[in-house]
Amino acid sequence: MDTSTHSPSQAPSAATPSVSLGNGESRISRAKDKVKLKAESVDVFYGDTQAIKSIDLDIFENEVLAFIGPSGCGKSTFLRCLNRMNDTIDICRVEGRITLDGKDIYAPERDVVLLRAQVGIVFQKPNPFPKSIYENIAYGPRLHGLAKRKAELDDIVESSLRRAGLWEEVKDRLDKPGTGLSGGQQQRLCIARTVAVSPDVILMDEPCSALDPIATAKVEQLIDELSESYTIVMVTHNMQQAARVADRTAFFHMGDLVEVDSTDNIFTNPQDQRTHDYITGRFG
Amino acid sequence: MSNLALIAMLLMLMALAYHLGLTRSRAVASHRDVRLHSRPGYYGTLVALWCGLPAFALFLLWSLFAAQLVDTLVVQQLPVDLVASLSDRELQTLMRRIAALADGRGVAGGGSPEELAAAAHMARLETIGQLSLAAVTAVVAVVGLVFARRRISPHWQARNHVERVITIALGASSAIAIFTTIGIVLSMLGEALRFFSFIHPADFFFGTVWNPRFSSAGAGAQGQFGLLPLLWGTLMVSVIALLVAIPVGLMTAIYMAEYASPWLRSVAKPIIEILAGIPTIVYGFFALTVIGPFLSMLGDLVGINIRTTSAMTAGIAMGIMIIPFVSSLSDDIITQVPKSLRDGALGLGATKSETIRQVVLPAALPGIVGAFLLAASRAIGETMIVVLAAGNNPVLHANPFEAVSTITVTIVNQLTGDMDFASPQSLVAFALGLTLFVITLGLNVIALVVVRKYRQQYE
């Protein structure tokens, strides 16, 4: 379960056997081969600084893809390009082409509102709205007119909370503020909120970095379950987490996508020296 | 020696004391080859404080009580039968005349021999007093200096002592503000109670007619002091002002916080805040010469009779004045709403305006309500605009296009010109002021509580 404690002096072959891959084997078998999101020579600039350098990446339907890499390597920035959350940052500029189901998401006629309904995002820090639990979930469906009657909305709220594994914990206090939940519950509430608008893809930006180990385990289990129906792209700082939940893993370094491969291969047989150094804890 | 020279002398002594303390502590440190408890600067400061503070305290005490002491001595000097023949008030007048003579200012008709003698005596006493004060202060200062300088040793915890003096000084400063507030309230309360000895509180708080005849009309003509027309006028003008300021101010705040480019923001915000810096009297005559005539022209067009000076005129001008209060405070509060909440809504596919209306504003609402309440208390206490533009007509009516009067205007009216502070006509101003104070205090307290509650949510 632990990659970061390997001493730098160990050879890669000696280091890798101790990496636990969890249920990695079964996960790979589930990976599909239909491309859901495709990035072609994507560059991202903050003002004059280039944060992402010409990245090409295919993301397949119903896979769990993890982005790993040291801080400031551009993994979050790239993730946020996938549903155009970077639009909210004034100085950020995206070049290149990103397609969802073959259609350019940066095309001028593309409606960013509909895109974000299709590609949902869960953030690093749980950010429930200062409203009731029910209203937190109902917000998205209302926004997009997904429910015509109150009963339908109730159904969406319940099924979303069930999917996020939160229903049993909150069903008696749906009218209580979402901010009153514990950190882990808040994060699952945010996942339920994202699920409620039935997206195809869910982006997760370090979803467990603000959570304790038990809450983290719950969220990881949830990601595993959600991958049945959604394509999930997650950024993580925690290599064990990537090893536990991801079908494939992409390693970012200084704005480059160094290597992307099945999680197994990345952790046991990295092709690039930088990947090797990173997963064996030589830097990071 | 004048007081100013005395203070200058004290300051110079303190500077000298600082220097002596500094050199002495350095000498101690080098001679005995030991570590001082504090840096030399602290010893210098402490010696200066020992030199200055007791002397200054003495000086203050003297200033408080010397005049009274001199007066008492002078009165004792006056012929006993003269003092006995005078009433308190006449005695006060006499003392004023003597003081004027002693200062060399002279009095109308020259002074009588007794007055002149007393004045000479007073002048002599004051000179002696000043000289002895200077001498005593200097002695105390020097004694303090020498005492403190001798105490300098490695064990003397100068830094801790200086810290304590600073703490006490800061505490005393805040106490001044608090005691002033309490003093103002008590003085208002005292005068208001005197007013209520003339007029029954029920007649004041629930009276519907405001007609305070002038006190010169004689004791029989007491007048009617009903608060309600004034309270109603105040409320009407304030509500109109808030109806103007809240929508405009809030929308300005939203635009500034969410949409404006940094450049526009940096230019526009100071310009909006200039509105708050315009003297209210200027708003008053702006209302009188521009808003009023414009409204009455508008009224002519649609066939309503609108007076130039009316609740509407004053309310609109006041509304413009408090726009920056609403916009500035709301802007700060909207900016404080964490970006993560905005991202959450945007990430679900909300548009920018949906995000603002449905997530940002509800999250900021308690703070914004606080801003509204502060603006409201400002509007209720505003005086000059209503003095000029509201028409001063203390009558209960519901037409905003008619002239009204407010509590503040009435206070101005009752306290300008010749006053007799024993009559209810003047004393009513204190009762009105107290009412106003209670209303604005209540609003401020509610605003503070609301704002504090909001803060707890995000920190």
From TrEMBL, chain B:
Does Signal show up as a keyword for this record? no
Gene3D superfamilies membership: MetI-like
Membrane protein topology class = Multi-pass membrane protein
Which positions are tagged coiled coil? none
| Domain of life where this protein originates | Bacteria
Q: Outline the extent of the ABC transmembrane type-1 domain.
A: 231-447
Q: Where in or outside the cell?
A: Cell inner membrane; Cell membrane
Return the PROSITE patterns for the record: ABC_TM1
Q: Which residues cross the membrane?
A: 6-22, 42-65, 128-148, 168-189, 230-254, 274-298, 310-329, 359-380, 427-451
Q: Which CDD domains match?
A: TM_PBP2
**Pfam families to which the protein is assigned, alphabetical:** BPD_transp_1, DUF3708
Swiss-Prot/TrEMBL keywords: Cell inner membrane, Cell membrane, Membrane, Phosphate transport, Transmembrane, Transmembrane helix, Transport
Primary localisation category? membrane
Family named by the database record: Belongs to the binding-protein-dependent transport system permease family. CysTW subfamily.
User: What role does it play?
Assistant: Part of the binding-protein-dependent transport system for phosphate; probably responsible for the translocation of the substrate across the membrane.
Please identify the protein, giving its name as recorded.
Phosphate transport system permease protein
Which organism is this protein's natural source? Vreelandella malpeensis
Q: Which gene is transcribed and translated to give this protein?
A: pstC
